[in-house]
Design a protein that fits this description.
Elements (H helix, E strand, L loop, with lengths): L1 H6 L10 H22 L13 H4 L2 H25 L6 H25 L4 H27 L1
Helix pairs in contact: 2-4, 4-5, 5-6
């Protein structure tokens, strides 16, 4: 049992509903990452992009959207894994939520440079900027409490 805990294979059970909330959140990267992989640049239209057919069918652009969608899906998988090991994988959890926060900063920079995207992208930016701060604080509080 002790060896399993050192390897991070047994879940931390003293973190209340935080792991459940994280796993529900993981549905977002799972679903949107899979959608990016399946539909490529066409998925950007759901975010408010108005793209000419030549851009939608551009092989390089499609390649990149599918690649980043797969990375996003993998992010969800890493967060899912870490969500049940919030004590033993605390550093990885903080790296993951820090990465999410940085993505929100990237969106904010894009808004500053190019203007607002569609409502789904604005919502994503708000989640990416506020969510990690809340999660980091909650995680820190639980680590000190338990």
């Amino acid at each position: 049992m002790q060896t399993e805990q050192l390897q991070g294979t047994t879940p931390d059970r003293d973190f209340g509903i935080l792991p459940i909330i994280l796993r529900v959140f993981c549905l977002l990267p799972f679903l949107t990452g899979a959608a990016d992989l399946l539909w490529g640049t066409r998925i950007l239209e759901l975010g408010g992009a108005v793209l000419p057919q030549q851009v939608i069918s551009d092989p390089t652009f499609n390649n990149q959207v599918k690649f980043w969608g797969t990375i996003w899906f993998g992010y969800g998988a890493a967060l899912w894994w870490t969500s049940s090991r919030l004590r033993s994988d605390a550093v990885m959890f903080r790296i993951l939520i820090g990465t999410l926060f940085l993505s929100g900063l990237g969106r904010a920079l894009s808004v500053y440079l190019y203007g607002w995207g569609g409502p789904p992208l604005t919502a994503a930016m708000v989640i990416e900027l506020l969510g990690p701060v809340i999660l980091w604080s909650w995680h820190r509080w639980l680590l000190h409490k338990t």
